[in-house]
């Protein structure tokens, strides 16, 4: 095939929908009528070599040793190609790797980076407030204790509101407007946080809390919007799916998500620098109110500048962010919000929603639990030092460890031999182990002699939280659901996660540290079990093939779908038990896809014939190769309108 130039540019696997009319019956005779060259072309289009071996066998159907060999072969070839491309571009433009990383990773995740900066800052400035305003934030003589606690509660509640509300709006009005709206809310919220004030200190706390709530609504919306737009942009909006989607979709989305870690890192560095500047280098407590005011207000104003730039970028440079959603709605003849798809999602994908929601809930309880480690070992190591810089320095180390977890997750999340599901299960189990050990030997590990072992478990739990559930929940909550309700499902799952954070934030105010460990530990085990039972593994799955399955479900013909989206590899344990994959049939699906392709070709021919009669020209989005056009012309039913002459695209990239 490599030597035949006519077979080079056909592109992979078009996501054709169900045979609505029933006129095109998938038969083995149809395949038998093909010439050798025609068969090669169809195989090249429908059985891309990154997912199928030379015999047309799907990678997940191969015996285990052959599967390992095939996956490693594809991954190694892709890695060599990327390294070659990087080197070639770097020789031409030495700055190319930085600009490419910025455009493909930093910009898509800029919103998450900015919100990571701000939300991490809320926790960082609290000890500074407690030191500079002790009668308000520590002893509560002049401020209401409930309002100081409400800062955390309102932050989480704002995120929950944003996740659900913007998730729905994103599926209703489109991804682009959701992205712009989020950036606008965050920008205004940052101005409110920077300028928050009150006649009394308690009034200031109330203003600060509500400003944070407003900002957090925008933060919440970032979750479903960044995940869905990043994933759909990776998939592409054309008919043909891409190798980029199958091999790098997870990396693209996770690389945007890890900007949250860089936001936290930037915040910690900036706070340290600002405190050193405002105090003249004297960072030992007590801290005066003026230095504290300058430190926290400037730290909030800095991301406001970046957020304003984000508003501009999303308004003028992301005009196609809603294209995939628009295509999906057009196919289903839907305008506005697709309520039918939402109802059907609960019916057919309810267990998946349980998986994404419960796992995210458990992860966020763990995320808050992770902070318990730090408070304990700092107290032992430093003798209960009141210097906020001590905690900030340890935060910096922890963020560095977390970033290692983020990056390792982005490198391995698309590996078919490990992938999303195993990464999540192993991450949960490792966190469970690192919590259960000190839970039942608390006095031992918090003693001065063993505190460094305790500290090591803290850093390792941070690493496996990022190299596990924190990264996977973000992508899985969008990936396992259909396009029309993807943002809604992601927002609901993320909101369930923040509900876990809220439960932890409230509960921790009423129990001691040892009891906190006893409570938190079991959420790791629960998350692993929920993931194993209910979450499908979409690693390596063509996302447009999943949309093809949804098209069958949408018209009440689930049993007529036989493709790889119901391969046991891509179904949860629960779905396998229920027999969802019983209709999987690779040979029948291949024949069916050819006939679905025939339907597209016939519609294209009818459209051209109508244009010809009216003497009008309307540009055709579909380009058909000579082999496919010839085969369908020869084997189609009589009466199919045919446009004579050479089909365009026989030598053009992306032709069918």
Describe the structure in your own words.
- With 656 residues, the protein is mainly alpha-helical.
- It has two domains: 100-534, MFS general substrate transporter like domains (Growth Hormone, Chain: A, Up-down Bundle); 543-584, no CATH class.
- 71% of the residues lie in helices and 0% in strands.
- It is built from 24 helices and no strands.
- It has helices at residues 28-32, 36-46, 64-92, 96-106, 110-132, 134-137, 145-172, 175-195, 201-235, 243-257, 259-278, 289-317, 323-331, 339-382, 388-412, 419-439, 442-445, 451-479, 486-507, 513-534, 543-554, 573-577, 586-614, 626-635.
- Helix 8 packs antiparallel against helix 12 (289-317) and helix 9 (201-235) runs antiparallel to helix 19.
- The longest helix has 44 residues, at 339-382.
- Residues 1-15 and 645-655 have low confidence and may be disordered.
């Amino acid at each position: 095939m490599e030597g035949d130039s006519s077979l080079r540019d056909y592109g992979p696997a078009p996501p054709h929908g169900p045979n609505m009319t029933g006129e095109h019956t998938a038969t083995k005779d149809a395949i038998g009528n093909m010439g050798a060259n025609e068969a090669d072309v169809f195989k090249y289009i429908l059985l891309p070599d990154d997912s199928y071996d030379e015999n047309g066998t799907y990678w997940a159907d191969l015996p285990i040793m052959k599967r390992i060999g095939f996956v490693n072969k594809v991954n190694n070839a892709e890695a060599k190609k990327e390294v070659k491309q990087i080197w070639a571009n770097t020789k031409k433009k030495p700055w190319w790797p930085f600009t490419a990383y910025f455009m493909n990773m930093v910009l898509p995740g800029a919103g998450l980076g900015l919100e990571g900066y701000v939300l991490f800052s809320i926790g960082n400035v609290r000890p500074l407030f407690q030191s500079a305003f002790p009668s308000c934030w520590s002893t509560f003589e002049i401020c209401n204790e409930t309002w100081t606690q409400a800062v955390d509660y309102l932050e989480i509640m704002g995120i929950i509101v944003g996740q659900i509300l913007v998730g729905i709006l994103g599926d209703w009005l489109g991804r682009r407007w959701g992205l712009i709206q989020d950036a606008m809310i965050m920008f205004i919220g940052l101005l409110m946080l920077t300028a928050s004030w009150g006649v009394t200190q308690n009034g200031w706390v109330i203003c600060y809390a509500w400003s944070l709530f407003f900002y957090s609504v925008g933060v919440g919306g970032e979750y479903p919007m960044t995940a869905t737009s990043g994933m759909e942009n990776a998939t592409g909006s054309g008919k043909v799916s891409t190798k980029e989607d199958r091999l790098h979709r997870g990396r693209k989305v996770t690389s945007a998500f890890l900007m949250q870690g860089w936001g936290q890192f930037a915040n910690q560095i900036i706070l340290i620098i600002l405190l050193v500047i405002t105090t003249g280098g004297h960072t030992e407590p007590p801290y005066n109110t003026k230095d504290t005011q300058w430190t926290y207000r400037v730290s909030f104003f800095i991301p406001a500048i970046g957020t304003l730039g984000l508003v501009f970028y999303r308004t003028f440079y992301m005009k196609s962010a809603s294209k995939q959603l628009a295509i999906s709605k057009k196919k289903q003849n839907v305008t506005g919000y697709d309520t039918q798809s939402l109802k059907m999602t609960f019916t057919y994908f309810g267990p998946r929603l349980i998986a994404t929601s419960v796992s995210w809930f458990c992860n966020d309880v763990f995320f808050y639990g992770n902070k318990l480690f730090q408070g304990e070992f700092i107290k032992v190591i430093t003798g209960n030092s009141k210097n906020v810089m001590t905690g900030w320095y340890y935060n910096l180390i922890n963020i560095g460890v977390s970033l290692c977890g983020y990056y390792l997750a982005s490198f391995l999340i698309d590996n078919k031999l490990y992938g999303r599901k195993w990464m999540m299960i192993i991450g949960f189990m490792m966190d469970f182990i690192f919590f259960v050990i000190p839970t039942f030997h608390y006095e031992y590990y918090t003693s001065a002699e063993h505190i460094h072992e305790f500290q090591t478990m803290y850093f390792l739990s941070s690493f496996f939280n990022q190299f596990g559930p924190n990264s996977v929940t973000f992508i899985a909550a969008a990936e396992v659901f259909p396009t029309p309700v993807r943002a809604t499902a992601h927002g609901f799952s993320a909101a369930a996660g923040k509900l876990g954070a809220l439960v932890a934030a409230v509960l921790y105010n009423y129990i001691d540290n040892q009891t906190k460990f006893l409570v938190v530990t079991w959420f790791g085990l629960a998350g692993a079990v929920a993931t194993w039972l209910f979450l499908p593994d979409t690693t390596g799955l063509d996302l447009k093939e999943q949309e093809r399955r949804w098209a069958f479900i949408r018209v009440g013909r689930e049993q007529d779908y036989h493709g790889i989206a119901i391969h046991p590899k891509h179904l949860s344990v629960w779905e396998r038990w229920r027999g969802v994959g019983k209709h999987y049939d690779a040979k029948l699906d291949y024949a069916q896809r050819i006939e679905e392709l025939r339907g597209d070709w016939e519609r294209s021919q009818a459209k051209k014939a109508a244009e010809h009669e009216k003497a009008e020209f309307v540009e055709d989005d579909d380009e058909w190769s000579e082999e496919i056009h010839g085969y369908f012309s020869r084997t189609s039913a009589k009466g199919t309108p045919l446009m004579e002459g050479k089909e365009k695209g026989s030598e053009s990239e992306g032709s069918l």
